[in-house]
């Protein structure tokens, strides 16, 4: 449903099978709830949960990236919260970890994003964790394909993700710098040391490989009046910021659309007069 915090809605009569159902195993909602509670104390039902999510994403990028001022990118405010959350729509429209390159491209293109933006945004997998159940079957079991995943990496994953493992077991998406927003993810992709098939799929396209290589190395561009040194990590960050700002404008509700929730997990119902 776009940037309307529909992902935060809990199961209810109106939303019996919401996006945050057991299917996605997402965590961290307590942080958003804490931010919302703090804001509500000062200005009740003025700041939307959708805006809080957008600012929280920016602040996480800043905090995990080394706290550089350039990472504190501008975030537009004024979104309103949606009233509908459907797991079926999330399954239909969100890119899946089993997607190949063509499917990834089509999924992002359907929302107005270029191939370059899709590759750049995939770098969000530089942080975070994934449940074994989201990648083990097919990637590790019944057998792994050494053409798609590094053998040593696959064996290490198998040691923490046994076949038919418990749903609660998680592993970092970036096993080199798991708590840092950087371009290491793209090195991992090219080295076949990533969790999802969709991550590895980026390396199957020659243009995508070239893009990822620019993110993992330093280059020099020569001009008539001099040279320009380009740090690959900084290049990815700058393009990621631009793509995130575009993403933050996706299908937003404004004006009298939607509502401002009182708590992020439930649609606001005005008290009876």
From TrEMBL:
It comes from the Eukaryota. GO terms for biological process: hydrogen peroxide catabolic process; response to oxidative stress. Residues 1-268 form the Plant heme peroxidase family profile domain. Signal peptide: none annotated. It catalyses: 2 a phenolic donor + H2O2 = 2 a phenolic radical donor + 2 H2O. Ca(2+) 2 binds at residues 126, 174, 177, 182. Its cofactor is heme b; Ca(2+). Its EC number is 1.11.1.7. Ca(2+) 1 binds at residues 2, 4, 6. Pfam families: peroxidase. Disulfide bonds join 49-264, 132-161. Heme b binds at residue 125. GO terms for molecular function: heme binding; lactoperoxidase activity; metal ion binding. Substrate binds at residue 95. Keywords: Calcium, Disulfide bond, Glycoprotein, Heme, Hydrogen peroxide, Iron, Metal-binding, Oxidoreductase, Peroxidase. Belongs to the peroxidase family. Ascorbate peroxidase subfamily. This is peroxidase. It comes from Rhynchospora tenuis. The lineage of its organism: Eukaryota, Viridiplantae, Streptophyta, Embryophyta, Tracheophyta.
């Amino acid at each position: 449903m776009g940037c309307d915090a529909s992902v935060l809605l809990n199961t209810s009569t109106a939303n019996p099978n919401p996006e945050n159902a057991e299917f996605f195993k997402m965590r961290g909602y307590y942080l958003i709830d804490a931010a919302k509670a703090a804001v509500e104390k000062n200005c009740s039902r003025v700041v939307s949960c959708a805006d809080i999510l957008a600012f929280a994403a920016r602040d996480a990028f800043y905090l995990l990236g080394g706290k550089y001022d350039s990472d504190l990118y501008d975030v537009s405010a004024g979104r309103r919260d949606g009233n509908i959350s459907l797991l079926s729509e999330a399954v239909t429209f969100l890119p899946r970890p089993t997607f190949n390159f063509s499917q990834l491209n089509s999924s992002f293109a359907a929302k107005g994003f270029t191939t370059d933006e899709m590759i750049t945004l995939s770098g969000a997998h530089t942080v975070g964790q994934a449940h074994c159940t989201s990648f083990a079957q097919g990637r590790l079991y019944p057998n792994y394909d050494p053409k798609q995943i590094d053998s040593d990496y696959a064996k290490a994953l198998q040691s923490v993700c046994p076949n038919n493992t418990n749903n609660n077991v998680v592993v970092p998406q970036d096993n080199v710098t798991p708590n840092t927003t950087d371009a290491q993810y793209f090195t991992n992709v090219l080295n076949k040391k990533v969790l999802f098939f969709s991550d590895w799929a980026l390396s199957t396209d020659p243009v995508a490989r070239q893009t990822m290589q620019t993110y993992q190395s330093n280059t020099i561009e020569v001009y008539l009046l001099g040279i320009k040194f380009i740090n690959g990590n900084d290049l990815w960050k700058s393009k990621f910021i631009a793509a995130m700002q575009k993403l933050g404008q996706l299908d937003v509700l404004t004006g009298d659309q939607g509502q401002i929730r009182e708590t992020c997990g439930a649609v606001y119902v005005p008290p009876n007069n």
